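Entry 12.
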Amino acid sequence: MSLWNQVGGNWTWEERDYSKWGRERLKQLLTSPQKQFAGTFTVESSLESAEATLLFLHGKKRPGYEFEDVKLKFTCTEGGLVIKGLVVCPCISSNESWEIRASLDKGFEPNEDLLRRVRAAVRECVQQFGDELNAKLP
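Predicted 3D structure (tokens):
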């Protein structure tokens, strides 16, 4: 929080934009090797409309972010086979629960356990992103 916003206890609204950092950092987290399913994601959608901010309201810090239409391709190895699929998140937001749709490419046998681990990997990346955003300022 800015010094001017702390003086006299008369706190007001203050916002810091971390959108550029947010786009880069979430992409970094998602494209790093994923331990949950021994694979990697490739970000297929533009994250240019993404927003990441820190709000200070009445002296409290509140991180916020929103990424719309996130599409990821994934590749992993299961039982010696290379498996590919797609993940779609219509809206990833700090304000609400969000949906992760994961599917395997055509020609691959259904594997709900793998898809569950893929969804968990996405959630873990977003959780880490939110934690890092929250830690940006004291």
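Annotation: Strands lie at 14-17, 39-43, 51-57, 60-78, 81-93, 101-104. The helical segments are 3-6, 19-31, 112-134.
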